[in-house]
Structures are given as structure tokens and as C-alpha cells.
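Note to self: keep these together.
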Amino acid sequence: MEIQNIHKIAIFRALQLGDILCSIPAIKALKMKYSQADIFLVGLAGMEDLVKRFSRYFAGLIPFPGYPGLQEQCYDVKAIADFISRMQEQSFDLVLQMQGNGNYVNQFVELWGGKYYGGFYTPYDYKPPGRLFIPYPNSGHEIERHLSLMNHLGVPDGSVSLEFPISDEDITDFNNLNFPLEKNKYICVHPGSTAFWRQWPTENFARMADFCMDNGLQVVITGTREELEITERVASQMKHDPLMAAGKTNLGSMAVLLRNSFALISNCTGISHMAAALNVPGIIISMDGEPLRWGPLDKELLYTCDWVAEPDYEKAESALLTLIRKRFVDC
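Structure:
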């Protein structure tokens, strides 16, 4: 589906770190197709740093004020009305709804006043006019779902590889932390997740961390300031003393810490997609039952443990033991 004279594009994806990273391959392909166009992410205000990090693809971030039915943030009705007016003043050539299946937001996005609209829809919900929308895929990886939309728009197939640029400033920020760590001799344990139902029990993370230290690896417990409680709980349940990095890193220094590590143990959350982008192996625990959608595509690099009911510690420990043997014995 070829469209012409595209100079200004808005992409609606007001979601968290991992969701944005999984859409980057599609956005990269779109930028290659419309190299002279300015692409703006309409997203959460907290994504400002990430958008700047991907300045090769994004011209900037337009903070999203929230909307009824979307759980990522609260909303204010007046702010929504002001936002629509500002979007109409922007005169976008192309607006892409990449938030999800569109059941809540397709009518809302149509009010932004774009020349063309595209994105996803479901057969039983509203679809804006035109031929640039496709039925929302209910199968396949998140990366591939968005690439399928690009293909419908006439954008050539792009790579499915994730990426996460690291700057000199990130390296400086990491060095300034003065962590007593040796490259490739430590493992990052990240027990937090923005969605509580994705959180593996802290006692399981503690047992895995002790298992690593019993096998000669230093353990670094990572997380945001908001995750200090859960990271401290993991540390208190360990028999060994880990290095606590939670609350001390920013996004860039966390990426350097992760890149220099032996591996990652985490829930299926944004940090797991950073690991995939940085080619860091690890054990990713999927508690939401969608490992085929969110798990790493490179199965040789990362091991994905998935379950929905009882958290299976032995399954994760077996995957970790396989990883340790693969790195230390086979290599």
C-alpha cells in the first residue's frame, strides 16, 4: 500500500520501555522508507530519554495525556481536549496507531487531523476509513506484528533485531558508580516489573542468585528507585551478600552494567528486551503466558522460562545451569 508525500509522521505508542524497544525495528524500517520525514512518538512523558537515544529515527516526543480505557496513566478530560487541538495544529501527513488492537483508541486517533491514518483494528470495533489499517494479529512476536503493518504500508521488510544505543555519557555515568565488578564475571538479577502479576516470587530470585554465587559469579541486584522494596526483599532472602545497584543507575548506566555482565535473570519486562538488544544471555521468566509474543527471538542467546500457574523454580534453575555450562564448558 504506497502512500506519497509523507513529511511528518506521528506514531501512537504510549507504553513502557520494552514495548517501545519491540517497535523499533518497524520504526527503523519506516524511517528508511521515508528518510526525509520527521517521525514523532506520541508516548508517555517518561520516554523522553529513550526517544533522544533513538534520535536517528525520532524527531521528538509528544507527551500523551492519557485516555479512558488505557491503564498506563491517569487522564484529565480537559488535557485530552487540549491535546487534540495541538495535534490538529501539527498537520501530520501520516498517523499510525501502534498502541494495540485499537478497540479503545482508533476513534480518538482519527481526531488528530492527519492526512492519512493507519494501524490495527479488530473486526468488531471501529476502523477509520481508508485502506491503511490491518486486522490486529493475535499471534506471532510483538516485533513481527509491527513489521507486518509496515509491510502493508509498502515499507520493505526490516530486520527483527533489537537495538539499544549506548553513548560515551552512559559509559561515564557507569564508571562514576565505581562498582567493584569484573566484566563478564557477574550476573544481573532484576526482580521488578511494572505489572505485579509478572513478578516471580522473591524467594525464587534469591535462590537463583545464591546458585550463581555458589558457582563463582558475583550477583548484582538491579532495579529502579520504585523497585527498592522488592530488590531489598530479594537480598534479605539470600545467604550471600549481593552488590545492590537498584536505585543507583539511570537508563544509560544500567545498559552499560547489563552489557558488561555474564547474563541476566529477570521477569519478562523492559530489561529483558534491553538484554536482547545488547546480546546479553539470560533467563527470562514469563508469568503472563505470552512468551512467544514477548520472549527473545534469538533462542540460542536467551532462555525463556514460561508458565502461568505455579512458578516452577526447578525449570528456571535447569535453564540457568545449561547457560552456565554453555558459557564456561562448551566455549
